[in-house]
Amino acid sequence: MEQITAGVVGYGYWGPNIVRNFSEIDSVALKYICDLNPEHLNRHKNRYPAVRFTPDYQELLDDKSLDAIAIATPVSSHYALAKQALLAGKHVLIAKPMCKSSSECEELVAIAEEMKLTLMVDHTFVYHGPVRLMKQLISAGELGDLLYLSSVRVNLGIFQSDVNVIWDLGAHDFSIMDYLLGNKMPTALHAIGKSHTDTNFEDVVFLTLEFEDNFIAHFHVSWLSPVKIRQMLIGGTQKMLMFDDHRPIEKVCLYDKGIELSKPPQTERERYRALIQYRNGDMRAPVYDLTEALKFETLHFIDCIKNNKTPITDGRSGLRVVRLLELADASIKSRTVLPVNVGR
What we know:
By secondary structure, this protein is α/β, with parallel strands linked by helices. Helix content is about 30%, strand content about 30%. The chain is globular, with a radius of gyration of 22 Å. About 40% of the residues are buried.
């Protein structure tokens, strides 16, 4: 298979970025751009003269020469479009979140595995150079045993009309956590959130995850912040790490800082006598790959198709993220801590 023939469905906000990257890859022949909106279809026709712009999705499904379809439409349409594509024998790249329910995700995963097709979720931040560097540092044991992860992803808007802020912004951080922790499963989830408009979609959410090994993760997502913040802190027994995606350079900083107990307490009484010593060492900002995240991702998608590899963000990772999103909604509504069983 010399070239992968591909089509993109959805040419609104994110679709043009996928189209641009596909068009720049020599091993991809971009054949279709599909959208129901005539205004979207009329954009950039001169830029891609060899591409067929069409409102008819069935054209893509019926084309036996089409190998892959990228879906960049609203989440409510993901399941139906992806299912049709898989049953038509097409490899699928699907925007985040994967589907609007875990049951839909499970069905897509089952179909892809039965058809032996590549199903990949567009969790773009996983392919971001700084995030891949963080994974390398954690895997190499630079941080020691992980203690906590704390993430803030806030800005003013954009208010979505079909999902709340945790489905919009939290999906990014859940996918990053899933990647960094090696699919480690949490045991409990607690979320609180509020809607400050008449849409009833929460625009501010605070969420905490607990894990068996005393690791804890906390997320703050909001559409109601006066400033835009994209920051993640990860603490370990050896070192600590900060990822600030708003910095123009040095987005990842590794700190040789932490605490040490002078004598590990053996009893409850000794616990109060244990002396905490603070370690303040150097900070370094390791170099990371500057390749555009979506470029790295689309190249990975094509490589998985051509060489029968499992994507880093495969359907099962998309399923785990959606299960956490569902539990976040349930926790907000019930105002309770919920047990987690996300599976693998």
